[in-house]
């Protein structure tokens, strides 16, 4: 069997396994973060989490398959390891960039939600006070 084909098979196996592992880790640990971003709406957090995982799989597996052919023929065992290290290194960098992009966007959404929460009073107003009431009003004259 040609070493280039061996390199392709090993690259695909490791890349797909890494993609699945990272996606599961991000999904499991990111759910709590999403619930906070979405103000405790667990159903919406689960739905957004699932959509993010699907998008992550599509983008990363698409990149892995497109990057499969990028490179020359592998002639010996040393070339096999060099080709695999370059290909897997690029895949890991892409995984990291996608992860950082997701965290950045979610953090922006979270900060916006925190700012909106700070603008609303903790207790709704209970009504208007007239001009002669409140702690600044002059004391009323005693009734005789």
Number of helices: 3
Report the radius of gyration as a whole number of Å.
29 Å
User: Could you name the ranges where pLDDT drops below 50 across 5 or more consecutive residues?
Assistant: none
- The overall strand count is 0
Largest sheet: none
Secondary structure: helix percent: over 70%
SS strand fraction: under 5%
Helix and strand element order: HHH
Mean pLDDT: 81
Which descriptor suits the 3D outline? rod-shaped
Spatial gap, N to C terminus: 113 Å
Q: What is the oligomeric state here? A: single chain
Structural class call reads mainly alpha
Q: If you had to describe this structure to a student in words, what would you say it looks like?
A:
The chain is mainly alpha-helical and 144 residues long. The protein is 72% helix and 0% strand. It has helices at 3-37, 42-66, 77-119. α1 (3-37) runs antiparallel to α2 and α2 packs antiparallel against α3 (77-119). It is rod-shaped. The model has no long low-confidence stretch (mean pLDDT 81).
Quick rundown:
With 144 residues, the protein is mostly helical. It has 3 helices and no strands.
Which key phrases capture this entry?
mainly alpha; 72% helix
List the helices and strands and how they pair.
Layout: H1 3-37, H2 42-66, H3 77-119
Helix pairs in contact: 1-2, 1-3, 2-3
């Amino acid at each position: 069997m040609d070493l280039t084909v061996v390199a392709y098979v090993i690259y695909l196996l490791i890349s797909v396994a890494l993609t699945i592992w990272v996606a599961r880790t991000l999904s499991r640990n990111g759910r709590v973060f999403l619930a906070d971003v979405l103000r405790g709406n667990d159903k919406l957090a689960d739905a957004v989490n699932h959509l993010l995982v699907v998008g992550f799989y599509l983008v990363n597996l698409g990149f892995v398959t497109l990057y499969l052919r990028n490179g020359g023929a592998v002639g010996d065992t040393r070339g096999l390891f060099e080709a695999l290290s370059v290909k897997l290194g690029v895949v890991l960098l892409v995984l990291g960039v996608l992860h950082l992009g997701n965290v950045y966007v979610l953090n922006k959404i979270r900060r916006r939600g925190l700012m909106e929460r700070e603008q609303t009073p903790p207790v709704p107003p209970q009504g208007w006070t007239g001009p002669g009431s409140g702690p600044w009003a002059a004391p009323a004259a005693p009734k005789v």
